[in-house]
Amino acid sequence: MGVTRRSNNKRNSKSKKQKTSKHASTSESLADTSTKQLSWPPTDPSAKPLPLDGLLAGLDELLWSAMAHIDPQTSKHQQKKCQVFSREALNLIGMGWVATNTHPYRTALGKGNKYALAMEFFERNKWNPPASLPEIQKVEVVDKELTKSSIFEGSYQHVIQKNIKVMQRELETNGVILIRNAFSNVPENALSMKTNCTPTKIQQTTGNGIAGETKSYYADATSDYWIKVQNHILRGFLCDNDCFEQVKGNKKAIILKYGQGAENHAHQDNNQCDIFPYQATVLFSENFEGGEFYVAFKEESTITRRIVKLENKGDMVIFAASKKSKYFHGMMRVTKGERSAVGLFQPK
């Protein structure tokens, strides 16, 4: 027993030395960075750029410049410093509505986390950040309302049957269509979710949105009603039976709950389907404000959001949602009440 204890003591001592050495080397590297840098941020050849196929493509320098203006205390006590620090910087340049929870963004924003730690190191040693910080530049985002040609009225089955060609054209041109009062007499259990399912939270530290005053989340729906709805919509869009059979088994419905103050950042789901590159959202709330749905896209240097206001219980949006498309989708902040909806054609 004595030998074992001495061995453990040696191991613990060695471990402490390694940790101390690692901490010292990190501090030294940050110190070297601070004394050598002439501009913010320091050049880092190993840093990954922001995804070139995303809404933040080409905005790397603007984002890093904004980070230099953030108080390091912002993320000091947060578990996920990288996301918190990055969200603050994105807000400064007017892009705080874009999701950063996927792997390519986490990899790229690791660079930002490094600078956040460097700023804390400056603070801890009573140093000052670089004397001349770069100016904060806001990205111009153009918000447009949905055109009348993209708005339809009535039962979704009837509307699709009567207007399928027009709807497909509008989806290709604008990325989204709205069917007002698409649903009525929906079963009471339509908004139930699986009992053994753990909801995915919407929260700032994840980078997928803002939770709001109450819990905001999404989870798999259990009602067979939505399977039938999805099949009806697929039949309207897909004439070929083989295509229909190929798509129908790979889609599911989810329940979406957002409290007051919640926001769902612009993102793309992992939708790899070329045959039916769309998804849909059906509204099931009435007593709320805000929470507008939108699709966003970037063409050259212009970022546009096409905004759709869902007003009535049963309104449905169908939108372009392929990973190969230029479109991203999200929801603006709920300013009052609670917003409930069902997301259709989610990839399994």
UniProtKB/TrEMBL annotation:
Keyword terms: Iron, Metal-binding, Oxidoreductase
Superkingdom, taxonomy of origin: Eukaryota
PROSITE patterns: FE2OG_OXY
Stretches the record annotates as Disordered: 1-51
Biased composition (Basic residues): 7-22
Residue ranges of every copy of the Fe2OG dioxygenase domain listed in the record: 243-347
Gene Ontology molecular functions: metal ion binding; oxidoreductase activity
InterPro entries assigned: DUF2086, Oxoglu/Fe-dep_dioxygenase_dom
Pfam families cross-referenced by the UniProt entry: Oxygenase-NA (PF09859)
Biased composition (Polar residues): 28-40
Family: Belongs to the iron/ascorbate-dependent oxidoreductase family.
Stated name of the protein: Fe2OG dioxygenase domain-containing protein
Lineage of the species this protein comes from: Eukaryota, Sar, Stramenopiles, Ochrophyta, Bacillariophyta
